[in-house]
Design brief:
single chain; 3 strands; mainly alpha
């Protein structure tokens, strides 16, 4: 379906590829400058112990609450999405929207194209934002080796699950690991624990 969208509107199609591969929000994908915002790890300013790849995509424009983040280009899917986006845009400083129109129009165009191809919750049960969820679920599975609770994954050791949820939160542009529950479902480990009353006893 994304290939069909690309044939109809290459800008929207490229944005969908970025959302699916990098877990971006719609606005982040449309505003991304795929040449200018791809940089070597050292240029990101991230701590050396966090390095996961030689090259990163720096997400700042369109980021929620202005929280910039670096996304490692550490999978073939991510590299392919960026390379496709670079081929689509008209120049080194270009963003993923049609350069003939402003941001508002390009965001409206994005929604229109998805509606035209029936990529809506009502029609196919699939949305652009759902592609972001797919990418974040894949990240959890890659880090932990297990599917998340939303896909029926088995319980994990607390440290492993926390590592997976932290990775998802970072990729999604959130600060706290608990924000990952919106994409992964509630922690199996946390669900199995008895709720503690004010005295520390089960309630």
């Amino acid at each position: 379906m994304i290939d069909k969208v690309c044939a109809y509107d290459r800008y929207v199609g490229a944005s969908l590829r970025l959302i699916r591969a990098l877990g971006l929000r719609r606005k982040e994908a449309v505003m991304l400058r795929p040449h200018l915002r791809v940089m070597p790890f050292k240029a990101t300013g991230l701590p050396e112990e966090e390095q996961q790849a030689g090259w990163y995509v720096w997400i700042s424009q369109g980021a929620k609450n202005g929280r910039a983040r670096g996304i490692p280009l550490n999978t073939p899917q991510r590299l392919a999405a960026i390379e496709f986006a670079q081929d689509v845009v008209s120049g080194l400083d270009s963003h993923m929207g049609d350069p003939k129109h402003d941001l508002r129009h390009n965001l409206q165009r994005f929604s229109y194209v998805l509606s035209r191809f029936k990529l809506t919750a009502k029609e196919f049960g699939v949305t652009g934002h759902g592609l972001r969820h797919e990418a974040l679920i894949d990240e959890f599975a890659a880090v932990t080796g297990v599917q998340p609770p939303v896909r029926g994954g088995a319980a994990l050791p607390v440290d492993v699950e926390l590592r997976g949820r932290l990775a998802v939160s970072r990729l999604a542009g959130h600060v706290r690991p608990r924000a990952a529950s919106a994409y992964l479902g509630q922690s199996v480990v946390m669900r199995s624990k008895p709720q503690q009353g004010p005295t520390g006893t089960g309630s």
